Structures are given as C-alpha cells and as structure tokens.
Records
---
Amino acid sequence: MSPSPQPVDVLIVGAGFAGLYMLHKARRQGLNALVIEAADGVGGTWYHNRYPGARVDIQSMEYSFSFDEALQQDWHWTERFADQPELLRYANHVADRFALRDGIRFNTRLNGADFDEAAQRWLARADSGERWSARFLVMACGPLSSPNQPDFPGLDNFAGRVLHTARWPHEAVDFSGQRVGVIGTGSSAVQAIPVIAAQAAQLTVFQRTATYAVPAHNGPLDAEFEAGIKAEYAAFREANQRMMGGFGSLQPPNRISALAVSAAEREAMFEDRWQVGGFGLLGTFSDLIVNPAANELACEFVRNKIRATVTDAATAERLCPSHPIGCKRLCVDTGYYASFNRPNVQLVDLQQSPIEGFTPQGLVAGGVDHHFDALVLATGFDAMTGTLLKLDLRGRGGRRLQDHWRAGPLNYLGLTIAGFPNLFNVAGPGSTSAFTNVIVSIEHHIDWIADCIAYLDANGLATIDATPEAEADYVAHVNTVAARTIYLNCNSWYLGANIPGKPRMFMPLFGYPAYVQRCAEVAAQGYAGFVLA
Ligand SMILES: Cc1cc2nc3c(=O)[nH]c(=O)nc-3n(C[C@H](O)[C@H](O)[C@H](O)COP(=O)(O)OP(=O)(O)OC[C@H]3O[C@@H](n4cnc5c(N)ncnc54)[C@H](O)[C@@H]3O)c2cc1C
C-alpha cells in the first residue's frame, strides 16, 4: 500500500523564479512549504531554453528580483541584456543565498491533484509515486513552459538531428560545417538565427509569419549606469511599477499621438528610440497600441529598417511583416535581419512554399528539396495554459480543469479559478504577465498570494474560492480591455492562435498598474468576488 500523503501547508509546482520566491516567502511566513520541480535544477525558463543566443529582452537591471535590497545591490550583471548562462547563474545564486535547495524536490513532476472537500486540502501526486496533502497549491509552473512541438507529418523520416529551442541539450551543440534548417521566426528563432548563421556552413530559415524585431544594442553593462541605478534601486523599481509593463521607466512613453506630428518629426522620434534599442520603440507615441493608423506608421518605420538592412530586395520584402507591430510579441534582436545578407543563409517563405513533407535528408517545401544535417524547431510554446492542461487537476465535485477551461481559461484576477479553492496560478492567463517584465509580475503575484494566506490564517478561515460570477465578469473585463487595443488584430499566442484546436480567447490583461490596483482593492474589500470559508 502506498504511504499516506505527506502533509504540507503549501505545495509549489516549479522552481523557476516564481517557485523560488514563493518558497522563500512562505518560509518567512512560517509555513511548511515544498517545491516540486520536474527538472534537475532551478531556473525554469533559463534552465530549459539553452539555445544559442538565448537572452533576456528586458534590461538585466530590471529583469531581476527586487524583494531583497542586499541581493539587488550585490548581484552584478555583466551585460545590458543578460544571456541565458548568466540568468541561470542568477537563479542558482538566489537558491543558495536564501538556502532554498532543501525545500525543493528535483526530478519530480506533478501529475495531478484532487481537491478533497471533506479535508479542504489538495491531494497531489507526482510521477515519482510521492503524494502530498496540501492546504494550498501554488502553480508556479510557468507561462511559457510547454514547448509547442508541431505535428509535422513525417518528421520522423528525417535522419538528421532534431532540436527544439526550448529543450536544448545541456552540452554545447556545434554546427560548424553543418547544414542547418530553422523552422519558425519568433523570439527564440530571432535570437538563435544570427548565432547559428555565423557557425553553420549553410542555414535555411523557414518563415510562416514575418517578425518585427528591434535592436538590443547589447553590450557590457555600463559601470556608471549600474552605480546610478543601485544608488536608488528602490526608487527605480517604484518608477517601473507605474509603467504599463512594469518596466521601462528610464524611457517612459511619450504622451503624444503619432498622428499629431509631421512625418519628419515622427521619423526622428522613432529613430531616437531605435537608436536606444529595446521595447521603448512602442512607447514613441501614446497611441501605437490602441490606434491601427498610428500603429501602421510604426510598422512602416520598421519595414523601412528591414529594407535598408537586407540587401536582396525580394528577401527584404518577405521579411517585412504585415500585421500590426506589438500585436505579436515584439522581438529584440542582435543582427537578425542582417543575417540574411550572409551568403550561407537563405529564407523560405512557408506561405508561398508550404512544407510538403520530410525526407531522410531534410524537407520538401514548395516543390524544393532542402537538405540538412540538423533541424531546429523554434516553434514556441503552448502558452499560458499548456502546462496546466497537461495535468489531471480536479476541483470541487471532481470537476476537471480541462472541462472548466473547455472554451478558454476562465479565471479570476489571473490568480485563481472558480471551483478550485486554495489553488493559485502564477503569471497565468488573466494576469498582465505576458505584457510585463515577468519578474515584476511574479513578485506581485507571490506577495498577493502570501498576503491572502496570512489573511485566511488571521481570520481562522480554511478556504478561498472565486465565485463563478466574479470569474465571468473578470474574463469579460480582460477581453474588453483587449478590444480597445490592436491585440485582437492578428493571430498570436496571446489568443491561443499558434496551437491548432486551442480555444481562441485573449488570455493576458493589458495594463500592469491598473491590474495591481484591482488586485489590491479586492484584498482590501475582504477578498471581494471570493467565498471565504
Ligand atoms: C526563451 C524565453 C525568453 C524569455 N524572455 C523573457 C524576457 O526577456 N523578459 C520577461 O519578462 N520574460 C521572459 N520570458 C518569460 C519567462 O518565462 C519568465 O520571465 C519567467 O522566467 C517565468 O518564471 P516562472 O518561474 O513563472 O516559470 P518557468 O521559469 O517557466 O518555471 C516553471 C518551472 O516549472 C516546472 N514545471 C512545469 N510543469 C511541472 C510539473 N508538472 N511538475 C513539476 N515541475 C513542473 C518547469 O520544469 C520549470 O522549471 C521568456 C521566456 C522564454 C521561454
């Protein structure tokens, strides 16, 4: 007979930044908490995504924890945009510095959990056979942690090596002298392509949808800049809290419409931000995300940059996107478009030349045989819901999450799900995480969850559960906000559009400060929209 489940106050799933901070916070609150992590190390995203060129696209001084002043003072980032090895070192540093490792069970994957109404606890089980009885279940398993492995018929025919950017081997992959194919041109591909192009003998990029990318202008972190931020780190973090994405206060958005200035002024203003690099381009004007006509001016600015960079005019045009800029996640690049000027790189547009099948040597697209030694799938993620929907999670009355989310991921405040009491989802659908510096979102979520648990304890309450009405109102709100923007004007992973058969529902909420305020108001009103018992 299997041993009885081990009791814990908080079972945390995932040891990325969210799981690490949740464990630290729970322990500080005197709770008995355990993290279970499928991988054999901490770091989550930065553990798994080891593809060449992987790096953060929000400046390192911002993409880092703020909860501990000594940590943010002591840690030194070497680059403006840290690369994956450095981000992984940082996650390991946090785990060691706060002595978290003994609270993490590695190589342990949650399979499912049932809410036991009589005991008012979650009964969770892992692939290791272990079971836990937890008062609270915190899903810190990541918004982008289920790689999208497209069902390419016949892929198995290919005799060469197949790699997915999100499950990259831990040992270095050497493409020297090899012919490489990359399928996909999203964020991971945009980072990987210049690095692979510089190494491989030949690189063929298969593009389904062209991508907007803005330059990172990455480089060593300027010592003076670092010292300036560190002198007033708390104020810097505070200023970022007021930004729509929880970052970017050094270059706040301009408050002027793109349609209110002359063409020459507009060009100069876009150019200023292009020269700084990063996401700030989208803040050049106040209406780029809400007014399609304004947005189109930014699109054309970037298209002209592509045309000026890529020497072959036909290739340049194929690289020019037609959807609104920002509607799909904007990419931050280091030499992406320029890679297509290399004699060893060619672009295949899958809209014109769809993949017809795979052969032992490669693939056939548009009637042309392409031969490779290695094929890289840069095909993204089943974002925001993929990881939870793989699990067998059952709430009140044995209701399966798959049934509750059949038409899309219903949630309240992006943190809870009606009928799934005491279960918290970090950085998931309904939250602003996808549009933010995600570490900012993680800290906000974990703090809210910890405060909520403290409130329940202080008031002798066992459970918190969102009402279906609050959930329905909240999901409607997320969609109302999205409808005021350009985000519904393209097929993005925000909408679930990258996964065949996934219900189309706009998942993230736009506007971090208003979201934080709403979450705080709900708490201040004694958790309005929830049933506490
Ligand atoms: C390539 C890439 C680049 C990114 N760049 C940025 C960026 O520049 N800026 C930004 O703000 N955000 C970025 N993100 C988003 C990024 O995911 C977040 O910033 C952040 O790392 C998420 O942390 P997390 O702890 O919530 O989840 P993750 O880091 O995804 O960690 C989740 C963990 O849960 C584990 N897990 C999943 N399922 C189970 C299970 N059933 N049982 C046990 N363990 C499980 C996983 O193994 C993983 O370790 C990027 C994401 C990717 C994929």
---
Amino acid sequence: MVTSTGADGTMIGHFDVERARRETPGVQSVIHLNNAGSALPPAPVLGAVIDHLRLEAALGGYEAADTAREAVEHTYDAVAALLGCRPDEIAVVENATRAWDMAFYAMRFQPGDRILTARAEYASNVIAFLQVARRTGAVVEVIPDDEFGQVSVDALERMLDERVRLVAITHVPTQGGLVNPAAAIGSVTRAAGVPYLLDACQSVGQFPVRVDEIGCDMLSATGRKFLRGPRATGFLYVRREIIEQLEPPFLDLHAAEWTAPDRYEIRPDARRFENWETNYATKIGLSVAVDYALGWGLEAIQHRTTTLAESLRERLVGISGVTVHDQGAQRCAIVTFTKEGFSATDVSTRLREVGINTSVTSVESARFDFEARGLTEMVRVSPHYYNTHGELDRLCALIEGRSRP
Ligand SMILES: Cc1ncc(COP(=O)(O)O)c(C=O)c1O
C-alpha cells in the first residue's frame, strides 16, 4: 500500500488495523457499525475509567479526584490540542447537547433578531431555536443548500445583515455523510462579525476539526461517538474574546464565586459553562480517548474511515432495491440508505439479530432535511477505522440477501 504523510506528520496511506482491533475488545463480540451512535472504546479508555472507579471505591470519591488531579486537568490540554485552541477556552460537560445549550442559551436575542441555521440541523438545536424565538421574538431562518446538498455559502453571505445575531450550523449531520463547509462559513461570519456556533458532535474524532482553521466562535462535541470516549462526556469551546460576554444560563459555586452576601463573580474562563459535580472517571476516560485519537492522527483516521465508507457506498449502490442517500461535496464515514420493500427499522433490527450494529435515523432527528428530501427514515451505517472490508462484505451480503445469518 502507498503511504504518504499527513499535515500532522502521521502516515495516512497505511493504517495498522490489526493493532486497532487488538486494542478494541468489542470487535471480538460484534460487528460495530454504529460509531455515529456510540463507538466501541479502545482498551486504554476502558481501563482508565475502570481504574478511576476502583480508586473511588478504595479511597472515596473526593479523595480519588484529588489523587487523580493531574489526569483530570489533562482533559483540558488534550481537548485544546485536538481543537487547536487554549485549555481555558474549554468546558467539559456531560454531553454535546448540554455543551451547545450552554453557549446558545447564554446569548441574548431581541424581537426581529435573526438566527441562521442549516437544513441539516439537529433536532435538539432547532427545538432550542424555536423555544428562544417564541420567548424573544427572534426569527429562525434556514440557509438554502447548494447543488451538493450542503450549506450554500453564497446564500449565507447574501442573507447576512445587521439583524443576524447568530449563525449556528451542524458540521456533520446525524442523518448522513454530508460535511458542511465549516471553514468557508467561518470566513464569512468572521468578516461580518456575526457569532458562529458549530455543532461538531459527529465530526470531532473522524477528521481534523480545528477551531483555528474553521474560525467558529463556539463549538460543541461529544466524547462517545467518533472520539471513542465514554458515554455522557461532552465539551464546549468558546473563543477567549467572547467568553466574558456570555453569561451562562445556569450558575453554581463552580461556575461562579459567592464573594459577598449579595454578590457573586462568574469565572473568567470557559469553565463558567460547567457545573461542580461531574463524573471524574469518564472525564479522565475522555482525555485518554482524545490522546488516543491524536496518537493515530486525525488525518490518518479520516483517510481510513472515508475509504471504508466510500467503498461501502459503492457496494450498496450495486445492490438491487438499495438507494444511498448521502449528500455533500465532501462525504465522511456516515452512510445512509434505504432498501425497497423493507423499513429501515426492519433492516437494522435484522442485522442486529446477527451481530451487526447499525442504526436508524429518522425524521424526528432532522425534520427540515428529511421533509425536504421526502424521507422518513434511513438505515445509518457508520464505520470506524477498526472496522474491516470483510465486515462490510458481510453486511452487504446480508442486505443483498445472498447470505443467511
Ligand atoms: C449532529 C448532532 N448534534 C448533537 C447531538 C447530541 O449529542 P449528545 O447526545 O451528546 O447530546 C447528536 C447526537 O446524535 C448529533 O448527531
């Protein structure tokens, strides 16, 4: 195999799949193609979480946190290295939605303010827009797609005016392989001085996502998906210059200090978006997952996962009755399809029965997009670098009906 070197110095043409599988206990028991749901964790992540739980059991929860202080603090350095920002621009919270909410609900809107979003936007984000629009009189507008089905940057540019208070985009949607042009959007919002919130829940961990290159002001992501971290971990990036302009929707004695009976002071760093009690075991696990991903190199991961996904798309389009639905000029490791005569739920359930994990993505999770495309549900297959072409063969044989469980 040809090897070449990525910008981060790692080899991108060769991927040590055997090592990746050796270090992933779950591949022994399942063909896991639901990494957009929650990936199989690598052994070091699993070990770190279990070790800390053992430490808590042995020492006491607070004492264990104290003992592991360095490992806990390292989470901020690791996430900052991953995103190309400073550790004090990172908040670690319990999931991507909470991270996104802490940024979004910190913003102030007035009647007539415009919130611009994408057609592919995730349901929870749109529900929040609608709630805030109802409360404040702000309006939510969807930026049209271009001919590839991704956000039209030209259309966005034309829509920008002094009433636009926020551009909030989902980088990679839950419902397909589309990668929205995050950096091109960033150039336009920066030039216009409009805050830009990027939902990078599905993109972080599957390819390089660097805020210094994208130019977003806020970014939310999760640990459990392509980063392969523990469940119930997430993080928020907020650009240093705007942290102190954003008052978190909730405060506690971690986010702020009670300085006098009638006064408090909010922390100056991004940890103002966190709260005091947290799961230390999974927080450490998240930092191990980030280091682990950086160890492989995000370009190398991208090369491997997109190769698997493109090869899967090619095979699927050759199966009679199957339609692949992924859009975008650039596509990633989320593959969506439907099969004539079968519901997506049926297909995914039958695969699960024979030890292949996929998932179903449905209209409730991205209504603007599903309705525009006349779809209600699709099977979602999301390979990671530890999956093999052999696993995809088995999947396709079952979808085609060539192979019996
Ligand atoms: C695009 C997108 N944004 C946000 C979320 C929510 O992430 P979490 O469940 O970590 O809150 C998801 C979850 O699937 C997602 O796909």
---
Amino acid sequence: MYNIDLGKSGLKVPTIGVGCMRIANMSESEISAFVDTALQMGANFFDHADIYGGGKSEEVFGKAITPSMREKVIIQTKCGIRKGQYDFSYEHIVNSVDGSLKRLGTDYIDVLLLHRPDALMEPDEVARAFSYLKETGKVRNFGVSNHNPYQIQLLQNALDMPLCANQLQLSIMHTPMIDAGINVNMYNNSATVRDGGVLDFCRLNNITIQPWSPMQYGFFEGCFVDSNKFPELNEVLKRIGDKYSVSKTTIAIAWILRHPAKMQPITGTTNLNRLADSLKAADIKLTREEWYEIYRTAGNKLP
Ligand SMILES: NC(=O)c1ccc[n+]([C@@H]2O[C@H](COP(=O)([O-])OP(=O)(O)OC[C@H]3O[C@@H](n4cnc5c(N)ncnc54)[C@H](OP(=O)(O)O)[C@@H]3O)[C@@H](O)[C@H]2O)c1
C-alpha cells in the first residue's frame, strides 16, 4: 500500500480506503477480522456515514476499535442525509457529528464529508458548523461527496479550511466523469457533462476524488465482476489479472488507480478474501493499453 495526500488537508492516507456501508450485520469477531485484514495490508482509512445501517455500522466499528488502536486508524464519516430531505443546517451537522462520535466511541473524527448536496445549503451556516467542529477538536478535516464544481466553490468561498475530498461514484462500469472529458463537443450521449467537469476541477484544486461503489454497475444494481451480464469485460479482466497473477477484483480497483488524478477508491466488500484482493491493487500499475482496453470493453467508443 502506498500513501497519497488527502487534498490540501496535510493528511497522508492509503490510496485505497475501506468502506463500512455494509458492515452493520457483521458479528463482533467478523468486524475485528475485517479491520485486522485491512490494517495488515496498510489500509487504515475507514469510510462511514451516520446513516449506514441506521447508525449500526459506526456502532459495531466503534466496538472493534480499542483506545490503543484509535490513533492508528483514520476515520471518515458523513452527514447531511435525512429521511425525505437533505440537511446542511448548523443543528443537523453538529448533532450528526455528536451522534457519530458517540457511536464510534471516539472524541474526534479525522474527516467529515457532506454526503449529498442540500438544495437549501447556506454556505455561511455550514462554515459556522465546520468552524465550531474544528475549534472543539471534534472534526479535523472536511470534504464533500457527490458535489459538482460550482457547489464546491460556493461552499469553499465561505470556509477558512480547504475541502480536501469529493466522494463520487466511479467504476469501470460507471464512468460519466471520464466519458465527457474524451468526447468534448460531440453530439453523442457520452459527451453529456453530468457533473460540471468535476474530475478536472478536483485535479486543478487538489481535491482528492474518492470513487464509491468501485465494483458496481448502475446505481447499486450489482457487481460486474463475475456477472454474466458482462462476459467480454470479465474475460479481459481475467486475462489481464492472469498476467499480473491477481484476481479480476484487483484489476478492477487497479483500473481506477491507473488514472493520474491520484484517486482514493473506497472498497465495499465485507468478504475478507475480496477485501485483500481489492487492497492488492495498490501494487499493480496497468499499462496505458490495458487501461483503454478495459474502458473499451466496458462499452465505450474509442477511435
Ligand atoms: N458517498 C456516497 O454517496 C456513497 C454511496 C455508496 C457507497 N459509498 C461508500 O463506498 C463504499 C463502497 O461502496 P459499495 O459497497 O457499493 O462498493 P462495491 O465495492 O462497488 O460493492 C461491494 C458489493 O459488491 C459485492 N461484490 C460481489 N463480488 C465482488 C467482488 N468480486 N469484489 C468486490 N465486491 C464484490 C460485495 O459483496 P461481498 O461483501 O459479499 O463481497 C458488496 O455487496 C461504501 O462502503 C461506502 O463507504 C459512498
């Protein structure tokens, strides 16, 4: 595993983060094994949200992290989604963080992300909440998720700390942010800019993109690896995996890491073998030809 800078935060983080959205129903011993597997492979960055498992994911994770382990792990969580609405109000942000701290059994969160844009966001109000959280030591660094460039800039203008990360959906089978950049000014569907040019914006402003659902197609429709919906893609992943003596899962994560934006994909598996396979991707650097072959086989048109 190698480390990257998390935007301008000054925080060094492993280039692959471990997602905890699906851990709520794991037993205590399963969570301990999950955390141990990650730590043994140098992956000490764990991604949470107040809503994962209705709070249960943070709770079970908090129980697995003993006080002596706390300084060795980097905990990121999110807030801003409530049933039936988004909420970036001062009260919601601060209360959500207090809830996360309690469930995680810690007195600080390393990184807090705003989960999805709130149409009613008041940048000054968010700034007040962030300043309070920073001054009280409850949160050390801040970022966003699923935000476009103008939303980021609007918020950033009100803040006196840098937004260090933007978590966005990206996988071999979900590439709108890449497609638009290589189909500039064309009439085809891939040319549609769905995110305001967020990939280049984040690179220009040193904001780390954290790809979520790195193995899914559609919106949580399923994992493309081993899916009979994508036979050709699986064949290519297998062939390239065989060349490096790794699995298709490893190649799928390595494909994201090969992009020069220095992204930090967030894994989602709860299976220890697949977690280890995902983390091995940090050791693989695909060739330019392999990267484009995978992209083409995913159904994208190239000359
Ligand atoms: N910011 C946001 O809006 C947002 C949205 C969604 C997720 N996230 C974050 O991103 C993380 C990852 O999302 P995700 O869970 O959807 O990720 P994912 O890695 O794309 O999907 C994981 C799911 O695919 C399954 N899977 C089947 N075969 C697999 C294989 N060969 N390799 C890996 N997984 C396989 C896993 O099952 P097994 O567990 O049985 O392996 C698991 O159910 C989450 O934990 C969360 O932290 C953020």
---
Amino acid sequence: MVAGGADMMRTQYYTATSLDGFIATEDDGLDWLFPLGDPGDTGFPAFIAEVGALAMGSATYAWIVRNAATVASESGSPWPYTQPAWVFTRRALPAVPGADVRFVAGDVRPVHAAMRAAAGDRNVWIVGGGDLAGQFFDAGLLDELIVQVGSVTLGRGKPLFPRRVLSPTLRLVSVRQLGPGMAELRYVIDAGGATHGGGAGR
Ligand SMILES: NC(=O)c1ccc[n+]([C@@H]2O[C@H](COP(=O)([O-])OP(=O)(O)OC[C@H]3O[C@@H](n4cnc5c(N)ncnc54)[C@H](OP(=O)(O)O)[C@@H]3O)[C@@H](O)[C@H]2O)c1
C-alpha cells in the first residue's frame, strides 16, 4: 500500500468471503472464518496500518458488540479500531464505551467526504457488509476490492457484493495464496464501473 499524499488515498472494501460469495452466514455467523487462517499472517496488519477512517453497517457493528469479550481478548479492547469509525444505521444503537464511533444514515457521499477529511493521506476502509460497499460503489467512490477468499462454501448467507459489475470489469491486480485456507485477490475498480451498478440501492 502506498501512502504518498491525498491523491494516493484509496477507498477500499477489504473483507473475507467464502468461495461462493458470502461474508457471513444468514444469521451473521463468522465461525467458519476463523479456522481458515490467522489474520496476522495475511496482508491485514499492513492494510490496517494505512487505514485512516472506516465505515460499517449496523449488522457488522452488532457482531463486534455481541462478541466484545472475544474481540477484547484478541485486540486488547472491546472496540478493535483506533481509527474514527462511521456506523450506518437508522436505529438508535448503543455506543461502545471509549470507541470513536459516529452513527449516520442515508447518502454515503457526505459521509465519505467526512471520512476522507479524517483519514488525511491514509485510506478509507469499508468494512462491510456487501450492500454498504455497493452503496459506495454506486456513488463512484470505491477504488479497490480486496477479498480473502476462504476455502469453504456456505450455500447461503450475507452477500459479498450484491451488485452486477460487467463493463468495465473489475481489474485483477494481485493474487496471493495464504496457505491452503485462503487466497487474497485484489481488484481495482476503474472509473465508470458505477454506471453499471445494479441491485438494491438505498
Ligand atoms: N467476512 C468478513 O470479513 C466480514 C466483514 C464484514 C462484515 N462481516 C459480517 O457480515 C455481516 C454483514 O451483514 P449485512 O450484510 O447485513 O450488512 P451491514 O452493512 O453490516 O448491515 C446492514 C444494515 O446496516 C444499515 N444500513 C446500511 N446502509 C445504510 C444506510 N445507507 N443508511 C442507514 N442504515 C444503513 C441497515 O440497518 P438498520 O436497520 O440499522 O438501519 C442495514 O440493514 C455481518 O454479520 C458482519 O459481521 C463479515
């Protein structure tokens, strides 16, 4: 990852997925993910070091809140991020004490502008879920898709990226094997892709 000024800053959707394109089971389970590899052995430490702001939907936030004890045992804090975070929801959700979180709703564009301002020359991370990443894509704001594809299938669940991206296609720029359990694929989203975004927008 290159951080060489505001023009180098990227908005990235970085996530793990099953081979058949689900980021969680239909009941928001992630137990399938953890046996596949240790995040410390992936590109994640280098990735997160370049993140200056992050956004997630309420189901992703709720997973962290529900699993606060596990998160704390692994990261040393019930909220694992030091960067400012934006949580999209139309409901009143409890805050995690000490977490730098702001709750927002609706159009992603003004939120992205605030995230960019907060991130400085670092990157903006769309943590998930897939439709929220799709909303940034629809607005022409998503630059990269970085997926760690696990060697499992789930059959059904929460979708990786519920959009139709046909022309221009995503541009595959790197492929890395992470042991037998995962492959990391990195795609650049070329300008113009958003005009072909389909699926349920908000
Ligand atoms: N495999 C991985 O690495 C990975 C990565 C990230 C997430 N996950 C998991 O994947 C699942 C994702 O769940 P999900 O697909 O349901 O997505 P999500 O984006 O986490 O949550 C969706 C919810 O966010 C709120 N929302 C989204 N866009 C909004 C907008 N523009 N304005 C206001 N509210 C908005 C809505 O909820 P309200 O009802 O609150 O308004 C919506 O139902 C979670 O279980 C998460 O833990 C896995």
